[in-house]
Specification:
The protein is built from seven helices and 16 strands. By secondary structure, the chain is α/β, with parallel strands linked by helices. Strands 9-10-12-11-13-14-15-16 form an eight-stranded mixed sheet, with helices on both faces.
């Protein structure tokens, strides 16, 4: 049975499981149950039935508990998931779980006079007939993997792995694109850069190239781009310019180039005048300070991001399944802080079924 537990540790209710099929060994079975969870509740599994005889372990038998790897409670976000060996899956595994695999590819972009390195994480595999996989492009790919890059990196790879196993987001391909040597050239729109070239390069070269090796979903609502600072400007621009390919955007600490971005930023100017939101899903956040030093009064472009959030809400684009935005209290403008928020972006952009 499942025991539903409140945040304070109170055991609130019990849900019985029912055997629906044989397991991998005689002492194992496939069981099913419906576990209603309120916000912040979790569950553990206690005292499995003796599947070989159908009993409950016998009088006086010590209760057995199943918890997530590392302890705690199961707190999945999905509504129809399979749990095996402490991990959730969107489909029932029918083979040994193959761990995530990492590889690197290089794609040439003559119009930017650069060959881009793309570090890829293919998620775990557990089905012989693998379903199509969603993908997220990660700007500043040199900082995305765990303990790599500035401030120890974003840890996006281990975060995605942990969240998928916890049933909090789908298994997703990560494509971490290492930045151009002249960052502004690829990330900023005209007249400061050539983000239009970079956008088309991702949509027309990198994505099709990776699709020759990976079972990628082709629909825009399965493709996202995520970035921070100038990388956030770029992410919004790419999803805005190529909605036929990239349907979702994750923006952490959207930045400005001075003055009032609503007077020159092509994406913000368009958002202010259009009726329908151009993104299938949009995630925008920011911190409050630029650096940790409290004596430094520079903000994380907080006022600009508050205006962006207000724009989405004022236009009615804030449906919970399409938009998430907030200001993170006390957070600053570097990888150490983006690391703390990237998991929420992945959960929102790629929710489990």
């Amino acid at each position: 049975m499942a025991v539903v537990v409140a945040p304070d540790g109170e055991e609130r209710r019990q849900v019985r499981f029912y055997r629906v099929g044989p397991g991998r060994a005689p002492a194992e079975a496939i069981c099913a149950g419906e576990i209603p969870l309120e916000e912040d509740e979790g569950f553990l599994i206690r005292d499995f039935a003796d599947v070989s005889g159908g009993g409950d372990g016998g009088p006086g038998a010590a209760p057995r508990e199943d918890r997530p790897l590392g302890g705690g409670l199961y707190q999945p976000l999905g509504t129809s998931l399979h749990l095996m060996d402490g991990e959730f899956f969107s489909e029932a595994p029918d083979q040994r779980v193959i761990p995530p695999q990492y590889f690197t590819r290089t794609f040439s972009c003559p119009d930017l006079a650069h060959a881009f390195t793309v570090n890829v994480m293919r998620p775990r595999r557990y089905r012989r007939q693998e379903a199509k996989l969603p993908i997220v492009f990660l700007n500043d790919g040199q900082n995305q993997w765990t303990d790599q890059g500035m401030f120890g990196g974003w840890h996006t790879d281990t975060t995605a792995r942990r969240l998928a196993a916890a049933g909090r987001c789908r298994d997703v391909v990560l494509a971490a694109v290492v930045m151009h040597p002249k960052r502004s050239l690829a990330y900023l729109p005209r007249p400061w850069g050539r983000a239009h070239v970079y956008a088309d390069f991702l949509a027309d070269v990198v994505l099709p190239g990776l699709a020759t090796e990976l079972p990628l979903a082709a629909e825009p609502d399965q493709v996202a781009i995520l970035g921070s600072s100038w990388g956030a400007i770029c992410a919004a621009y790419v999803a805005w310019r190529r909605p036929d390919v990239v349907g979702m955007v994750g923006s952490l600490s959207y930045s400005s180039l001075g003055l009032n971005p609503f007077t020159y930023d092509a994406v913000l100017l368009d958002l202010a005048t259009r009726r329908a939101m151009p993104f299938r899903r949009a995630y925008f956040d920011a911190g409050e300070r630029f650096v940790e030093d409290p004596a430094n009064r520079r903000t994380d472009n907080t006022r600009l991001n508050e205006r962006i959030l207000s724009l989405f809400r004022r236009k009615g684009w804030d449906a919970p399944d399409r938009f998430r935005g907030f200001i993170a209290k006390e957070h600053c403008h570097n990888e150490r802080w983006w690391r703390q928020r990237v998991g929420g972006a992945l959960e929102f952009l790629f929710p489990p079924a």
